[in-house]
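Thread: sanity check for a docking pose with 2-acetamido-2-deoxy-beta-D-glucopyranose

Original post by kr_44:
Hi all, I'm comparing my docking run against an independent structure prediction. Below are the sequence and the ligand SMILES. Could someone generate the full complex and paste the structure tokens? I mainly care about where the ligand ends up relative to the chain.
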Amino acid sequence: MFLSRLATVAGLACVTAGQVVNQTSCNDKNYTYQELAGYGLISGNARDEYGDTIGGIGSAIALDRSQWKKLSNGSYNGVLWALPDRGWIARFHLLWDMIRRQGFKKSTHFTDRHTPSPSNRKLIRSNGRNTEGTLNFQPRVHKFDILFTPQPNATVASPSGNNLFFTYKETIRFLGPDGTPCTGLDADGTGHISFPGFPDLPVATYQGDGFGNDGPGGKRIPIDSEGLVLTPDGSFWVSDEYGPYIYRFNPAGLMIGAIRPPDAIIPMRNGTESFSADSPTFYASKGAGDDVTPADNPTGRDNNHGFEGLAVTGDGNTLYVLLQAAANQEGGLNKQTERYARLVKYDITIPSAPRYAREFVVPLPLYNDPTAKASKNPKVAAQSEIFHIQDGQFFILARDSGAGHGQSVSLSVYRHIDIFDISTATDIKGTTYDCANCSIASDAGVLKTGITPATYCSFIDFNVNSQLNRFGVQNGGAQDASLLNEKWESIGLVPVDGLVGDDDEWFVFSLSDNDFITQDGYLESGEFRYADGSGFNLDNQALVFKIHLPDHSRPFDRDP
Ligand SMILES: *[C@@H]1O[C@H](CO)[C@@H](O)[C@H](O)[C@H]1NC(C)=O
Ligand SMILES: *[C@@H]1O[C@H](CO)[C@@H](O)[C@H](O)[C@H]1NC(C)=O
Ligand SMILES: *[C@@H]1O[C@H](CO)[C@@H](O)[C@H](O)[C@H]1NC(C)=O
Ligand SMILES: *[C@@H]1O[C@H](CO)[C@@H](O)[C@H](O)[C@H]1NC(C)=O
Ligand SMILES: *[C@@H]1O[C@H](CO)[C@@H](O)[C@H](O)[C@H]1NC(C)=O
Ligand SMILES: *[C@@H]1O[C@H](CO)[C@@H](O)[C@H](O)[C@H]1NC(C)=O
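Reply from moderator J.T.:
Ran it for you. Here is the predicted complex with 2-acetamido-2-deoxy-beta-D-glucopyranose included:
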């Protein structure tokens, strides 16, 4: 029985055994969302081995395929890598005022009593994008042991408690090719840094310690991590938003390679490359002002809309990277027009010599934002992650923004893991579309004739309350810990049989990015303490979906 109608009746429908939540067919391949299988969290004030807050970790995840095991008692063990982005961002004017009033110095602890009132909070939020302040956070990846015990009998009337548990293992911090730590600080408006054997890389020049205190200053490679792919030799790839680049790190976190994308994706200002995302440093921004002119680069990836999606094929030989939404010369400056996103394919058969192979266009889904004026709808659901299934079919996590725990609106209307298929899409690689000001669409977001984009198929809706409520969580409603976070940004797959998935049954893990929002935050090896100006504490939430993939799918090759 096809249950989409039932499932959309939030909180009323209870899917019983044998039924499914939804099914979809994409180019004759059938996918089934069977049920929500789990929920778990890492507390928003958990800290890593360096004393820093474990936050933002849902920017990307990777499940180590060699460690995933089904235990005889029905539980599963695994190792999950989780990638935070560029660290905590001071988002509010008032926070800066508060710090100045107190005389900002190391070890100052900002407490709840300085939290803005809800009405102030609203005002501060409306100050928008220019209130950000980036910090000299060293980008990193965390590893966790996970213990997962499916609870198929959970119902809305009798929900399961959390059934996914995380035990912190270790953290790898990222270093540039010469061993200098990388940074979450925004890139400089002009210039780059060079290393032998690498393309020119973005650079962030900072003063003091980069947190607002005394120090020698310096230059570091800025990375706002968003995508993660593991390889069998222990090295791993990370895609970022500043360049946007793809970096390769050895198991110790040392950068051993970098991929610079086609020029059409590189941000340009005044006719030269300009990697700044217009996210001023915390110590210089004082909560106001741009740090680069013009704030919006006319061509290339939009600010903070870089390589959100990174995937590898099952044989490990091909990387795919997808922009969060359209580049600026092709509609990227508006939520209504940023629909056509570039997907770039690299052959990494020789990992030290990646080869640009092909390029395609993915049409992002549209949704109606009930809080927006009719003239502002429909909006494009930007994407936050991709995962390769097989034969050119991918999962893609596309969603709305501004709705969820800690946001002014609690009801999200679009939060999906959908599917796209590139088998009939046009390969746009080449001089026609790849030059600095070349475009695949008009700046109003109309795709050029002659380009066939990927096929897009709707699939898993995160927001089905009849499933969420089985694990005591929900979309919409009260602003409390059981409300889903705004930002879901990661996809990991593991087989239900604990082996290779011959029965095509898989668990899909997704973690949310909590933006490091806590009232008990630590950075700079525990020396920089903060309380987010929103007043909220957000957990790092995780969901597990049980699905059936098309027959004989092999998202990854593995000997049984
Ligand atoms: C079910 O999938 C269809 C596409 O096959 C989609 O249009 C619909 O929104 C989905 N419904 C739910 C509740 O996920
Ligand atoms: C996919 O599902 C449809 C509808 O249930 C069915 O008719 C079709 O045979 C299925 N296709 C495959 C390849 O399983
Ligand atoms: C299964 O065994 C593991 C390992 O001993 C244990 O941690 C887990 O709690 C057990 N699961 C159940 C459902 O008892
Ligand atoms: C679920 O319920 C069925 C029927 O009551 C029972 O046989 C089964 O053991 C239960 N499964 C779990 C994991 O509790
Ligand atoms: C671009 O040119 C303007 C006008 O000369 C200048 O103010 C601005 O700083 C330049 N921006 C960059 C990134 O070079
Ligand atoms: C692209 O930039 C080049 C160099 O600045 C310029 O000559 C050319 O006219 C531009 N092309 C378009 C389509 O804007």
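Residues 152-153 surround 2-acetamido-2-deoxy-beta-D-glucopyranose (ligand 4) (CB under 6 Å). Hope that helps with the comparison, let us know if your pose agrees.
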